[in-house]
Predict the structure.
Amino acid sequence: MNVSPSSATALETFPRDLVLADVLRAVEGLRPERAGSVAEFREALREVGLRARGEVTDSLTHAIAQAAMAEERAAFVRYISSVTDEEMQMAEPLPHRRTLAPEEEAALRRTLLDRWGAGRGYWFPISGEAPPEFALAFHTDWFDEAKGRVVGELLGAHGVERVFELREHGEDHYEIGLKAFDPHYNGAEGFWFSRESDWVVYASHESSITIAGEWLVAGFRERFGDCNRYQYGGPFSTPDLRGTWDWESTR
């Protein structure tokens, strides 16, 4: 099938970023501590470069896109092959982020569902269901980055070191270090929680942030004694920072 020059350029360009995202996701799913040697880990990285797949890249069947992705895979494998054992051992660790295997993600969603009635579809405050016990919801106009950092501080003070991040769709589901905890909507709704599931944070597409869990809510109330004044009222911004569902009232 013939394509226009602009389409050919696009097919030769954007699949490269997509396949590298697949490779990164797969690399972050590896467990270096389980490798028997540096050589074995290098071989695992090479295999990832050759075989990592994603839903989007699997759908790109045009020959130009296929060739571009093959070039990126080959470049990655060449680079990994060129790195010496000493360089690999001296590499400084990045902040912790581990891609979750599909079966692990599914098990974690079951845990969220059993404990909070969450994890599959919309949750409080936009689900229309009664609020869970020990839950607060705010508009993102009030719950800004500074308040997100406070939640992170409360988690750290409680001994939380690892956090699970599940998104509503796509393949970006991770175990992250607490320093990477950043609850926000990025085009996909998100849940953050730890293995004990005694707390959860939820970011919705309707400009809401929910924090839940007895000790987490108690700590948040201590830091923000007036937070009840800012309970979520809807997705549209309002001067009182609570939001509203009535679009007309904001005009």
Summary: The chain has a mean pLDDT of 91. The chain is about 40% helix and 10% strand.
